[in-house]
Amino acid sequence: MSVVASNGIDSLPDSLISQILLWLPTKDSVKTSVLSSRWRNLWLDVPGLELDLTFLTPSSSKSAAINNLLDRFMEPRLQKLKIKYDDSNNVSRFGSSKLIATVINRGVEHLDVESFSILPRDFMPLDIYKSKTLVSLKLAYVGMSSPGYVVSLPCLKIMQLENIKCRKRDPLIIENLISGCPVLEDLNLCWDGGYNQLPVLRVRSQSLKRFCVRSSPLSISRSKEYAVEIDAPRLEYINFRDKNTRIVVAKNMSSLFMIDIDAKFNVEKMKKGTISDFLDRVSGVRHMIISQPTLEVLLPYFKHGLASKFRNLSRLEATFCNVLLQRFPDFLESFPKLKHLTLYLVYMKELEPENLELTNVPTCLLSTLECVEIKEVITRNNQRTVLKQWHKKTIWMEAVRYILENSLLLKKLILCFSPKTIKVSKMSKSLATFTKRSPKCEVFIRWTSLSKST
């Protein structure tokens, strides 16, 4: 009995097997040809093709072999194409641009193109702007030109653009591409602001549900700041991981459920009230993740009542260094219905306060907070000095005491620290001296594995 027969796969029809093989890289689906005589040519009927031409040196024989393979796969309609190449390696010998244009015109549904050239010479064919069948589009390190006509991608739901180089640095190419997708639901951008010099990134969509934007690691040293303007009434999730974002203008955020933000807003270059307006627009979210750099900018607005309260927020994840912990109660006052809090603690030697005095008790501690997780983020500096800097552990334990002694409905407190921190702070003994305001509260101590470089 053959291996495939014993597993029951051989009893499946060829059409179903082809769809299963579609989820495998082409190089792996080819390997199934040795299973049995029936499987010898099944991989050729898979409606998907994955090519990696990155390290392939062009030659007449290789080019002919690749073209023959492409012709064989192009006979039926190709549902999925994934291609990687090095634009600086004379990739035109393999006809990648022609291939992309051909599969688009023949109705490809999923297209994934990645170049390994920092400055691409090969721009995407204009056919990409008028596909009637594309459902997902992923482009990385490729060039794009203005089509000169209205973009129309009626079926596109997922789009991922990474380090796209716009010809003549035209900022409207990306904006028009987004606007030409009437059913777009998921948009992911990795932006190289240094090359494109985009002053404003406008995202206008009536269908968008998820929007993620992050800065390219290649652009940190030379990128210019830019603004992001969002007008998407159905948007449910926003993720900002962009150090070059100067300002975020949000409109029509009534459907927003979750926001994850790590951006350094340049307050000095903003108009008065811009930050307050942004916070007001997103104040209906139920789940928020906020980084320390963003928190440093936004804390004064929370403290002085310059932003609306987040009355629907039930889950919050925030990163604090020791000096920011002093304003921890003022921050929590903006979330009167908070139920689950995850607090990430980062030690920064240059921002070490003498002591921690927490006196105000926010509404959520008295009425809604049920679960708190406190997690140490281990940095390189932290690892070197943990045994010497015991004072920071004292401050962290004061934060733990504050939560335990002021939370009326707390059910669970989870403390995730490094083994060294637990040892230096004598955590178990310290906890035994604290008064639990909530008699039902359970305390758990766990080792942490979170780390980041500083």
Automatic annotation (TrEMBL):
Gene3D superfamilies: 1.20.1280.50, Ribonuclease Inhibitor (3.80.10.10). Residues 6-42 form the F-box domain. CDD domains: F-box_AtFBL13-like. Coiled coil: none annotated. This is F-box domain-containing protein.
